[in-house]
Amino acid sequence: MKKDPKLIHREISWLSFNERVLQEAQDPDVPLVERIKFLGIFSNNLDEFFKVRVATIKRMIDFQEGRKKVEGEKPKKLMSMIQKKVLQLQNKFEYTFQNILNELENEGILIINELELNPFQAEFVKNYFDEHVFPVISPIILSNVDKFPYLKDKSIYLVVKLNSSEHDVKTDFALIEIPTNVLPRFLVLPSENEKKFIILLEDVIRASLDDVFALFRFDHFESWIIKLTRDAELDMDNDLSKSFLEVISKGVSSRKTGQPVRFVFDNAISRELLEYLVKQLNLDEDNNLIPGGRIHNFKDFMSFPNIGSSHLTYKKEAPLPHPLIKYHKSIIDIMAQRDFMLHVPYQDFNIFIRLLQEASIDPRVTEISLTIYRVAKNSKVINALINAARNGKKVYVVIELQARFDEETNIYYSRKLEEVGARVTFGFPGLKIHAKLLNIVRKEGARLVNYSCVSTGNFHEGNARVYSDLFLFTADKRITSEVKKVFDFFENSYKNFTARHLIKSPLYMRRKMYQLIDREIKNANAGKEAYIILKLNSLVDPDIIHKLYKANDAGVKIRMIVRGICSLKPGVPGLSENVEAVSIVDKFLEHSRVLIFCNNGDEQYYITSADWMSRNLDRRVEIACPIYDKTVQQEIRALIDIQLKDNVKARIVNAVQDNDYVPADGSGKIRSQVEIYEFYQDLLRKENY
To answer: Are strands 531-536 and 557-562 parallel, antiparallel or unpaired?
Structure first.
């Protein structure tokens, strides 16, 4: 593939997005503990980036497919570009973390290490180590093993240099896995003089190394933290005699032994030891050797404890009730009267749970069908479906076993549902089911009536607390009859059907998106008003982007809110001067996807599960759902208008990817997520809720 100068490489654009996450950790207006958590989010994002995207590039290099290119770049060159950007971000990260430590100290909160313990704290740590830590660690002395121990993904290890003042005792090395899977990473120490102290689990171990190696004659210890990131892609077995469930189960197990793609280490480590580790782990320059500070696995900082005052975290705003939904009133009856939309986390996701619970015991409900991509580990959604099956309903669940990093949870729940008689089917290999759909069939007199919910996000109560998503609840026959056909399509060996309202991928969505854009181009060429407003997580597909460039040339005004990857170059004269793009990163993850087309003044609205990426358009089952209800249209337009005015958390997306904030104008500061919460509060007041 020839390099396209009109596109930004997706990997580089993703790193630019993660830099926006890091900006939240740098922002002094963000509460201090929340800034620490953003460091954790940044780190967790980077882990997944290396496990998946970098791993793919690494495999191309390993298989000597250098002649093949990734979006116009040879794999080795792309890896070098990634390495350079990651190191830049790592330096910013370390600087930011040091500033946060200083600000924590000003708040009377100190993260201390084993060398900074006073005698009372040392005794407290020693007792904690003896009671909780020592029983769960398994030190390995490297001179005792023929083969270097296997380093697990997601774990951090303490490499210890064992020294002795006795001349006849040779220096040795040991490896200790830090047991964060069974113990908290953070130990809160007793307060002293209004100061509060935290020590990390690895430093608890460091403080007790003399006890760990008491059987030996070592009396001086040096230690450094290391971490290995492994390829997380599933190796799909092509043996069709095996069930899909078995294939995925095997793939999840094999993930734990994936090839290394990144090695991070304490930069203070001795060069001799680093060279030894690189050799023993069979690493090279393509494994992204990343020097860092004393602390690694910052993803744990997403759970950093707030032991200070309440101003160090965001004020917890409770999800709001929906003005149409009353307690002890049927949600299905409300749906029968009109469409309505639920917007999480601003509004209460329990409304969706209540709908499932109502359907599970309603004697007139005969069927419940649901797609599952990700669900919570203790899922109320699954519990409601299990209850429905026990109440004699036909429960049909389409579970996507290839939902990355959620495969084990989905496998577990597929078995639980099958145990109570629910029918469970899985996504077809190579064709992920990413559509978010619910359909309820209810017998009303002599008729069977469909009630549907179409969502931009997962039916996941955990995500619904932090992911911003839209859920359309409808009994509109134009939509519900086709949602029912989608489930028939899943249940009956992918028997296709023609849809007039829902837009499906992989067969029709790309073509329909082209048609919608082409109509705006035609209207612009005819001198009519023409615009497109998009809200997406990612915009990557080259053909769609070039179609938008053509719309730009025709004079179509294009405004975009793209949280993550944006391969289109906005605002470039002669290419995209009519395109404006922003990215909003704030306390909630912007996840909803909305498409608005001018249509010569008769606006058309869609919500969709699909980003504009090749995989979503060509290799996944996705749904874009039209919004016909005028009140819901007005609500969506109000939300988008608020976000397009954001000048606090919105960054300008442009060709140089400098992530400048949208400047405030004379109207004052507008932080869209705060404004949207107030918007829904106003709706409640108008309804005298």
So the answer is: parallel
Q: What does the alpha-carbon distance between residue 165 and residue 219 come to, in Å, rounded to a whole number? A: 7
d(CA 676, CA 657): 27
Edge-to-edge strand list for the sheet holding 172-177:
140-141, 172-177, 156-163, 220-230, 260-266, 289-292
Query: In the structure, what pLDDT confidence band is assigned to residue 66 with cuts at 50, 70 and 90?
Result: very low
Confidence check: pLDDT of 689 > 70: no
Compute the distance between CA of residue 180 and CA of residue 74 in angstroms, rounded to an integer. Answer: 38
Give dist(CA 464, CA 376) in Å, integer: 10
> What per-residue confidence (pLDDT) applies to 75?
84
Q: Which of 37-46, 76-85, 501-510, 572-581 has the lowest mean pLDDT?
A: 76-85
Res 249: pLDDT: 52
The answer to which of 164-168, 181-185, 559-563 has the lowest mean pLDDT is 164-168
SS3 for 293-316 is CCCCCHHHHHHCCCCCCHHHCCCC
Distance CA 599, CA 528 (A): 9
- From CA 355, how far away is CA 374, in angstroms rounded? 19
**Coil/strand/helix, residue 461:** coil
Report, as residue numbers or ranges, the catalytic residues.
434
R_g over Cα of the chain: 27
Are 436 and 344 contacting, i.e. CB atoms less than 8 angstroms apart?
Answer: no
Q: Is pLDDT at 240 greater than 50 in this prediction?
A: no
The per-residue pLDDT for 248 is 44
Q: Which residues pair with 172 in a beta bridge?
A: 162
Euclidean distance between CA atoms 228 and 281, whole angstroms: 9
What residue has token string 């002649």? 67
Q: Judge residue 167's burial from the number of C-beta atoms within 10 Å of its C-beta, 0-12 exposed, 13-18 middle, 19 or more buried.
A: exposed
Q: Which neighbouring-strand residues pair with 595? A: 534, 606
Q: Do the Cβ atoms of 648 and 671 come closer than 8 Å?
A: yes
Report, as an integer, the average pLDDT of 664-668: 81
Distances, alpha carbon 175 to alpha carbons 27, 114, 147, in Å: 37, 18, 13
Q: All domains of the chain, ordered by start, with CATH?
A: 10-312 (3.30.1840.10), 331-501 (3.30.870.10), 504-686 (3.30.870.10)
Task: Tell me the percentage of the chain whose pLDDT exceeds 90.
Answer: 77
Mean pLDDT throughout 476-487?
96
Query: How many helices (DSSP H) and strands (DSSP E) are in the chain?
Result: 19, 26
Backbone angles phi, psi at 557, to 5 degrees: -80, 125
Measured at the CA of 571, the angle between CA 16 and CA 547, to 5 degrees, comes to: 95
Which of 51-55, 96-100, 277-281 has the largest mean confidence?
Answer: 96-100
Residue listed under structure tokens 């793939």? 251
Contact 417, 382 (CB under 8 A): yes
DSSP state of 566: B
* Of 90, 442, 421, nearest in space to 267 by CA: 90
Q: How confident is the model over 283-296, as pLDDT tens digits?
A: 876 557 888 889 99
Of the candidates 51, 63, 426, the one whose C-alpha atom is nearest the C-alpha of residue 262 is: 51
The fraction of the chain above a pLDDT of 70, given in percent, is 92
Q: pTM of the predicted model, to two decimals?
A: 0.90
Q: Residue 608 has which token pair?
A: 């969709």
Q: What is the DSSP letter of 459?
A: S
CA distance 581 to 16: 14
**H or E element at residue 643:** helix 630-644
